[in-house]
Backbone:
C-alpha cells in the first residue's frame, strides 16, 4: 500500500480555517485519497475522498495537487468538536482495504 | 449508528478462554473488516471479508480467526485469549469500491486478565 506522510500534530483556533497536509509522493494513478478522523473514544469517521479533482462536502474540502503527490484537508471554520486525529489514506482500487498511518492530532483552542 | 453495530461493547475475560466479537451490519455491504487499536500502534487490520465465506488475513492475524456465514455478520474469534490481545477492536464495512467511504462501528473494548 502506498505510504502517506502527515505531521504528528497541529493546533488551531476555534472559528478559524484549518489546513491539514498530507504527502503521498508514491501515489499511483488509480489510488483514491481518503480522509478519516477519530474523535476521542470513538471509531474512525469518514470525512472525504477524491481521485484527481478537488472535492467539497458538508464536513470539509479536499484540495489535491495537480501531480497528486500531496493533498490538503480543509476545515473551513474549526469548532471544538473538530479536535481529533485525522488520517490521510491511499486506497488502491484493487486492494479494498484501509491501511492506517499515525495521522495528525488536531487540537482546537477556544 | 450508520447501520453497523458491534457487540459486546466491553468485555473482560481470562487468559486462555475463547472470545467471540460480533459485527453486524444492515447495509448489505460486501466488505467487512476487523481492526485493533493500541496505544503507539494506531489501527491495524486483523482480517477482512469480501463476501460470504470469503475472508483474508490482515497485518496482525495471528491468534485470531473470523467467520462470515451471512452478509450481515462478521465474527472475530480469539481461540485462546492472551494479555497481548487486550485492545479496542473496531469493525468496518464498505460497499466494495475505493470510491466509497468506509463506515466504522463504535468499538469493543476487550481486556484479557
Residues:
Amino acid at each position: 500500500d502506498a505510504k502517506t506522510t502527515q505531521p504528528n500534530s497541529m493546533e488551531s483556533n476555534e472559528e478559524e480555517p484549518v489546513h491539514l497536509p498530507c504527502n503521498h509522493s508514491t501515489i499511483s494513478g488509480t489510488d483514491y485519497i481518503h480522509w478519516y478522523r477519530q474523535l476521542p473514544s470513538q471509531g474512525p469517521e469518514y470525512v472525504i475522498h477524491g481521485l484527481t479533482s478537488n472535492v467539497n462536502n458538508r464536513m470539509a474540502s479536499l484540495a489535491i495537487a495537480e501531480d497528486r503527490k500531496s493533498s490538503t484537508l480543509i476545515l473551513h471554520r474549526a469548532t471544538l468538536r473538530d479536535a481529533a486525529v485525522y488520517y490521510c489514506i491511499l486506497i488502491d482500487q484493487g486492494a479494498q482495504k484501509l491501511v492506517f498511518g499515525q495521522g495528525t492530532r488536531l487540537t482546537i483552542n477556544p | 449508528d450508520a447501520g453497523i453495530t458491534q457487540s459486546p461493547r466491553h468485555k473482560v475475560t481470562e487468559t486462555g478462554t475463547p472470545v467471540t466479537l460480533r459485527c453486524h451490519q444492515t447495509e448489505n455491504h460486501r466488505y467487512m473488516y476487523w481492526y485493533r487499536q493500541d496505544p503507539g500502534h494506531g489501527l491495524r487490520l486483523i482480517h477482512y471479508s469480501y463476501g460470504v465465506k470469503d475472508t483474508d488475513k490482515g497485518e496482525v492475524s495471528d491468534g485470531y480467526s473470523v467467520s462470515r456465514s451471512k452478509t450481515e455478520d462478521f465474527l472475530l474469534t480469539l481461540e485462546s485469549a492472551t494479555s497481548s490481545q487486550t485492545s479496542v477492536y473496531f469493525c468496518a464495512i464498505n460497499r466494495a469500491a475505493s470510491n466509497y467511504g468506509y463506515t466504522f462501528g463504535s468499538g469493543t473494548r476487550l481486556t484479557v486478565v
User: Anything to note?
Assistant: The mean pLDDT of chain A is 93.
